[in-house]
Amino acid sequence: MRDINQFTITEAVKKSFRTEEGSRFEQLLHGLIDHLHDFTREQQVTHEEWMRVLMFLYDCGQISTPERHEFILLSDVLGWSALVDMINTRGGATEGSNLGPFYLDDAPRKPLGSDISDGRDGVTILVHGKVTDSLHNPLPGAIVDTWQADGSGTYPIQEQAQGQDKMDLRGVFEADASGRYWYTTVLPKPYTVPYDGPVGELLRAGNRHAWRPAHLHYIVRHPGMAAITTEVFFEKMDYLENDAVFGVRKSLVAKVSPAKDVDALGYEVAAKPDAVVEFDFILAPES
Amino acid sequence: MRDINQFTITEAVKKSFRTEEGSRFEQLLHGLIDHLHDFTREQQVTHEEWMRVLMFLYDCGQISTPERHEFILLSDVLGWSALVDMINTRGGATEGSNLGPFYLDDAPRKPLGSDISDGRDGVTILVHGKVTDSLHNPLPGAIVDTWQADGSGTYPIQEQAQGQDKMDLRGVFEADASGRYWYTTVLPKPYTVPYDGPVGELLRAGNRHAWRPAHLHYIVRHPGMAAITTEVFFEKMDYLENDAVFGVRKSLVAKVSPAKDVDALGYEVAAKPDAVVEFDFILAPES
Asked: Which of A50, A179, A207, B151 is the most exposed place for a label (fewest CB within 10 A)?
């Protein structure tokens, strides 16, 4: 291997990994090495630039904790997370969008019609819709797991020091026999992704802001169907056109309507809504 | 930006960075985004694979300290460091090779002919040669900064807890009026790069060993010339054909000869050598 040069080194590195021929690991590793080396040759990367990239990754590592995952944030602002979401959206199903850093897998089950805002300030909204397959057949018992920021753009998990409960503004609902789900909550506000670390530095270097449009997070599941992780946004609200993490899709933007006909919907709800948001989830088969 | 899809997102992300048109930052950032997104589309990366990569980077960050830089190690085993070295070698100059993690920028100045081994066990070698420009003109006063592992493959900086001095097996020499340098030391042994972290896991997953062939590290400088960072290896020794970090170049492999004609070289040396290693460094102009 002493005869390698800047053109032959790529094959030498790939060969040095004695991976199972054709395995997925080999495909991904070879693809990664090819792109890394091509990038380096195309850009004629200098030692200073190479070290800058490595120190950036080092700094991302130093600021990361189980609660603050700077590499996911980096993936988000480079549109990598969004691209993976897009590629993995199944035909006919609701489009996927960012999981984000605030999901907890042990949020409390709540009865349909609950209010998950605990009387927080802001606009009270009724959120409702149906969970179906792509032929509009309802999926009774589908699980709708939701979490969100409050009316000032803060997630309770971020403010535990100020006495908020990390389980606030979360709920796991089971759709009824017609696949319907409904609950009330507070309309969330836009907020910024963390920009006090290396990724924030990158945003500033590119004259980019750190704002996300207001949204509700969802994971929706049903036996035999592929679970979807997605977000619901609101028409005419800020940052829909320049979400810092590229999470918005046209199909995920819901209308917010005045609550004049709430009674006609026939839902029992714990809090009187000011407005109504309707969003239907469509799941595709698992296999 | 709500109209983006898996094909248009790449341009949207590039545009979101309002970088100076044509700037180096823009070139590198756009190149990086293009390759990351192309890789993802080509490989149809799944959520699990995406998260595996992010957790790998997270783990690299967690094990990293100022003394243990797992990202440089990752760059090394992927041949990225070597490729950057190759691209940045100037025509006519000695080829560059890995800086590695053990360089200290405040190693002690030592007189020519010193022994930097402090009587360590092993084969004592006389290392000598000339520092010239590419027309063979000597560069008097050139600085030859060297560091190395010992006769068992360990760097003193790694063994400080066992009473070794981190400045052992290092020296900064100033070439004489003819551009010559010479000193004695112990012939280093092969050693492994750290494989107790995520990069070690990657090596094991690819059935790769962590060994590097024995080598001496150098940074050579002279006013007006581009400094070179490189390594000198030894003919017929182990791992020349499968260095874990792809540092070996044909032109960097030196001959190790029995010390029969040392007196004829006319050097004053502090220790009697068993063998002789000759290596000339060629520097190219800075601009």
From this structure: A207
Contact B17 A49 (CB under 8 A): no
The separation between CA A113 and the C-alpha centre of its own chain, rounded to angstroms, equals 25
Q: Of all residues in chain A, what percent are helix, strand and coil, respectively (each to 5)? A: 30, 25, 50
Which stretches of B22-71 are assigned E, i.e. beta strand?
Answer: none
Residues of B in contact with A42 (CB under 8 A): 31
| Residues forming a β-bridge with A225 | A285
ipTM of predicted assembly, 2 dp: 0.92
Instruction: Determine the residue of chain A that is closest to B228 in CA distance.
Output: A47
| Distance of residue B263 Cα from the nearest chain A Cα, in angstroms | 33
Supply the pTM of this predicted model: 0.91
List the end-to-end C-alpha distance of chain B, in Å, as a whole number.
45
Alpha carbons within 13 angstroms on the beta-carbon side of residue A18 total: 6
Distance of CA A206 to the CA centre of its chain: 23
Domain ranges for chain A, please list them. 9-65, 80-283
From chain A, the residues in CB contact with B81 under 8 A are 50
CB contact under 8 A, A84 and B16: no
Closest-CA residue in chain B for A247?
B2
Distance between CA atoms of residues B151 and B191, nearest Å = 10
Question: Which tens digit of pLDDT belongs to each residue from A187-242?
Answer: 999 999 999 999 999 999 999 999 999 999 999 999 999 999 999 999 999 999 99
The domain made up of A80-283 has a fold known as: Protocatechuate 3,4-Dioxygenase, subunit A (2.60.130)
CA distance B97 to A160: 50
Beta B170-174 vs B143-148: how paired, if at all?
antiparallel
| Beta carbon pairs, A and B, within 8 Å | 212
* Residue the block writes with tokens 């590592």: A61
Q: Which of B77, B87, B98 to mutate to test the interface with A (most CBs of A within 10 A)?
A: B87
Query: In what helix (H) or strand (E) does residue B198 lie, and over which residues does it extend?
Result: helix B198-205
